[in-house]
Amino acid sequence: MEFLSMQELCITIIQCFVMFANSLCCDRQIDDRFGFLCPNVVQSVGNTREDRISYIGSTIKEGNKQCWLAPIREGNHWTLCAICPKSNIIYWFDSLGGEQNDDIEKIFTEALEMYHIIREKNTKWLRLNYRHQLGYKECGYYVMGYMYDIIDLNRVHLLDTHFKNLECYTQEDINFIRNMWSDFFLRLMRGT
């Protein structure tokens, strides 16, 4: 119900969107390029720091994708990391324009270093100024929009050169994402 009434989104809605995004990549035959981290395991609630590092590092190493999308919930706020292991860059998408907190940065950096996914010690974090929300509860919709935009662009290098639009998503943009998610969810429920 929260999804239909533009309320703050729970982790289950975002997890279903990750399933949709993965399905979209398969349909477009770009699933070898994009991978997804489970927001339930990446979040700090209910997971130890070591478990999060282990999950992130082992999943990225074993998955061998060019770009990993990781929706992250911090308190009541959703953000997105786009991890590009080969270029040693993590792109930070925050609809409020904030920077990643130290804990998130350390966990992702340690995971990449521990699993020898990166060639250099210094992971580069790039905060993107892209599509900022005006209200206080749209962040989950923005994270879904960011994931869709990255997949739709179908590029994993130099994301910072492509994502510079500061305009808010319109209600039409958000409805487009909601409709795609809803169609996918209904197909999933019907088993088709």
Automatic annotation (TrEMBL):
Q: Name one Pfam family in it.
A: Peptidase_C48
Name the UniProt record assigns to this protein: Ubiquitin-like protease family profile domain-containing protein
The UniProt record lists the keyword Nucleus: no
What family does this chain come from, according to its entry? Belongs to the peptidase C48 family.
Q: Keyword set for this entry?
A: Hydrolase, Protease, Signal
Q: Which GO terms describe its molecular function?
A: cysteine-type peptidase activity
Where does the Ubiquitin-like protease family profile domain lie?
65-169
Alphabetical list of InterPro entries matching this protein = Papain-like_cys_pep_sf, Peptidase_C48_C
- Keyword Magnesium on entry: no
Tell me the first and last residues of the signal peptide: 1-23
Q: Which terms under GO biological process does the entry name?
A: proteolysis
